[in-house]
Amino acid sequence: MTNKRSGHVLLGINVLVLGYLPAAWKTPLLKKDAFIDPDYWASLGRTAERGTLDALFLADGPLLGNPAHDANPIRLEPTVNWGQVAAATSHVGLVATASSTFNDPFELAERVLSWDHQTGGRAAVNVVTTRGVPAARNFGLPDIPQRDDRYERASEFVDVVRALWASAATGQDVHHHGAFFDIEGRLRVPPSRQGQPVIFQAGGSPQGRALAGRVAEGVFAAELTKEQAIAHYKMVKGLARDHGRSPDDIKILPGLLLSLGSTEEEARRRCDEIHDAGPASYSIGWLSQAIGYDASTLELDAPFPEEVLGPLKNSQTFLGSIGFRESIVAQIRKTRPTVREYLQQTRYTGSGHAGFVGTPEQLADHIEDWFRAGAIDGFNLQPDRLIDGLDVIVDELVPILRKRGLYRHAYETQTLREHFRASAPTAAL
Asked: Which tens digit of pLDDT belongs to each residue from 179-223?
């Protein structure tokens, strides 16, 4: 294990409503209406804060998800939902995903800054461009815009939102007339305690990484191997420096799917039990939408054909995540499994995001290894089932990281931006 860095990692929880596995809802630990139960959400917030975690993430839901491959097809609106959690907490950051394709920048800027004010400077927005024809039709569009158009809009969208947030502090009107938006005015919301809400970016395409390097303060990344993560880390930090920013201005937090147990055998048994309780078609459905190919037509006991692993024929019309697809293809090319073997492996190794199955001690080793190697600033952890998986992170993983000097014992900062700045400086690139 290398020892290039000191200080503490950043830890977020990607709150996939009930957990990242589709059968998470089947546990008797949950009420049948947990996903809309205020007590469930408040409990998640209090548990995260007990572990001095940095942030909770919640995706938006501009369309009804397909339960064939979406573990959480129904979601509450995140900025409203986080208000419930904010009332039960005082330090943990709250990150809401928001679509730059379908939101209006003035309305979103006002909504997020109002929410940021009410939380005392703990708000962040994860800017995504959204994919999927059903989402477009929910907003009166016949089809989703092409990828370049979505990212051009996203770039201008973020600039407008930041200018509007600044107007709350300066009292000066924003005069913006661009390709997508015309703004004459300013926000009447009180300015942010943290300067401005934190901006995350989650796209793994070249356009997404370019946007992150220019404006993002956090990146929700998808990395399957440490080598890929190191390369991505250097690339995005370098893009930030190319824009005159310090590499430490942007924090990289890949997602990590978790199944934890007191022994590795127990963790694997838990992972298998929750997987097996879900629909058999889930893995094939998810893989199909992730790689842009109907995986149900593939021979299960044959390797993936080259036509599936080759470059996208048209990245502009591909409706999946390019970052996820790149990670999946790289993983398949490295191990050359059959389709059946790959679907079995993803239980333990992850698919778009990396997976981890093991003990809290082993997870601490993994986090420390990637952090010391300069692959991450932290992780966005995604428990298989939140109702009991989050407690293991807080009560077992965090104490181990504290003993190793990798995590704080108590909150020393108030706002999300301060949490980020208090983490260790980046290693030299």
From this structure: 999 999 999 999 999 999 999 998 778 888 999 999 999 999 988
Decide: 345 and 328 in contact? Cβ < 8 Å.
no
Token output for 59: 């995706």
Is the CB of residue 400 less than 8 Å from the CB of residue 364? yes
- How do the residues of the chain divide into helix, strand and coil, expressed in percent and rounded to 5? 45, 15, 40
Report the distance separating Cα 405 and Cα 409, nearest Å: 9
Give the Cα separation of 13 and 41 in Å (integer). Answer: 13
Between 239 and 348, the more confident residue is 239
Rounded distance between C-alpha atoms, residue 99 and residue 110, angstroms: 15
Q: What is the pLDDT of residues 110-149, one digit of tens each?
A: 999 999 999 999 999 999 998 778 788 888 888 888 888 9
- Asked if the model's pLDDT at residue 327 lies above 90, the reply is no
- How many beta carbons lie within 10 A of that of residue 140, not counting itself? 7
Q: Pick the range with the lowest mean pLDDT from 242-246, 252-256, 260-264, 289-293.
A: 289-293
255 - beta bridge partners?
380
**Cα–Cα distance, 33 to 91 (Å, whole number):** 27
Task: Output Rg (C-alpha) for the chain, integer angstroms.
Answer: 21
Residues near 33 by beta carbon (within 8 Å), at least 6 away in sequence: none
Residue 172: helix, strand or coil by DSSP? coil
pTM score, whole prediction: 0.88
Q: b/e for 26-64, b at 16 or more Cβ within 10 A?
A: eeeebeeebbeeeebbbbbbebbbebbbbbbbbbbbbbe
- Nearest-angstrom CA–CA distance, 344 and 401: 30
Q: For the chain, which residues make up each domain, given as ranges? A: 10-265+351-422
- What burial letters (b/e) apply to 95-125, b meaning 16+ CB within 10 Å? bbbbbbbbbebbebbbbbbbbbbebbbbbbb
DSSP letter at 58?
A: E
Annotation: CATH topology of 10-265+351-422? TIM Barrel (3.20.20)
Greatest CA separation found in the chain? 65
What is the C-alpha separation between 60 and 243, in angstroms, rounded? 29
Tell me which DSSP letter residue 394 carries: I
Virtual torsion, Cα 213, 236, 323, 35, nearest 10 deg:
-70
CB-CB contact of 322 with 315 (8 Å)? yes
